[in-house]
Amino acid sequence: MPSHLLIPLAASQTPGCEQALSHLKLPQLDRLLARLTLSHTDTGQEADFAPPHERALARALGLPEPATPWAAAAQHTAGEGWAYLTPCHWQVGADHVTLLHPAQLQLTEADSRTLVDLLAPWLAQDGITLSYEQSTRWLARGDLFKDLESASLDRVIDRDVRAWMPRGPRATEVQRLHSEVQMLLYTHAFSEARAAAGQLAVNAFWVHGAGQLATLPAPRDAPEMPGALFDAALQQDWSAWARAWQQLDSGPVAELLRQALAGEPVTLTLCGEASALSFTSQQRGLGAKIHSLFGRQRFADLRKQL
């Protein structure tokens, strides 16, 4: 199978990222790009519910996009509504409601399971089955999620949630559940214990990866998708982001270049906050090789398209 390297947040238009990029040297990436041909352009907007790296991953796996039912795909089931629920803290300001990074909750497995046990019977009244998957991600099943379009958690972290609320014929029911969860947890002993310990309150949840699969896709190999760039970008730590790029350049990118030089089929997908570009290795004639020598594509020239 061809090797596929999919890189989220390869570039951003934020000033901090632009400054980091102005000093960044990625020689292996430029050498690789000089040997590859642009094969797919995914032009989007930063307001899209699904970020370009999720859309690219869905295409690679043969899943529907942009509204990809990630939870249903993970369960390998068709015809049922599934979603992920992430416990979170909404920070309410005068003119915004910001979803803080779930890691800031420092939820232990025991605490997260306690929350699931608390909320599961209550959600069951709305036909939702809730189960624990990991401390900051639970699995939910119910008809409510079948036709629900939900924004990726990646999109909403440290942003105002009001622009990213779910859409669909039953979206108002999700909003009702949000309000009821807030009231349920506000005075609960679980919340009082966290407050006494100086911990952030769990005062909301985020629905993502919602939907249903019409049919099960044929199994495909997933691309390699390193997350170091994305993690650093979420923290707005552009120095760490630049270091992560250098490590990628000398590691996975250099390995993909080695494979391309050996004549193996490879794919590289570079994603920004709005769009993505995919490049593949192809058999090239003499004319194409000469053209590549004089018209080489470099990352510095491509990043504005992301």
Poorly predicted spans: 285-295
State the major sheet.
4 strands, mixed
- Structural category is alpha+beta
Computed Rg: 22 Å
Percent helix among the residues? 25-40%
Distance between the amino and carboxyl termini: 27 Å
Mean pLDDT: 91
- Summed up, the helix count is 13
Percent strand = 15-25%
Shape: globular
- Order of H and E elements: EHHEHHEEEHEEHHHEHHHEEHH
Number of strands: 10
- Order of strands, widest sheet: 1-9-10-2
List the helices and strands and how they pair.
Layout: E1 3-7, H1 15-22, H2 27-35, E2 37-42, H3 52-61, H4 70-75, E3 82-88, E4 90-92, E5 97-99, H5 109-124, E6 129-134, E7 137-141, H6 153-156, H7 171-186, H8 189-196, E8 204-211, H9 228-234, H10 238-250, H11 252-261, E9 266-271, E10 276-280, H12 286-294, H13 299-302
Parallel strand pairs: 1-9
Antiparallel strand pairs: 2-10, 3-7, 3-8, 4-5, 6-7, 9-10
Helix pairs in contact: 1-10, 2-11, 9-10, 10-11
Write a structural description.
The chain is of the alpha+beta class and 306 residues long. Helix content is 39%, strand content 18%. It has helices spanning 15-22, 27-35, 52-61, 70-75, 109-124, 153-156, 171-186, 189-196, 228-234, 238-250, 252-261, 286-294, 299-302, and strands at 3-7, 37-42, 82-88, 90-92, 97-99, 129-134, 137-141, 204-211, 266-271, 276-280. The model is unreliable at 285-295 (pLDDT under 50).
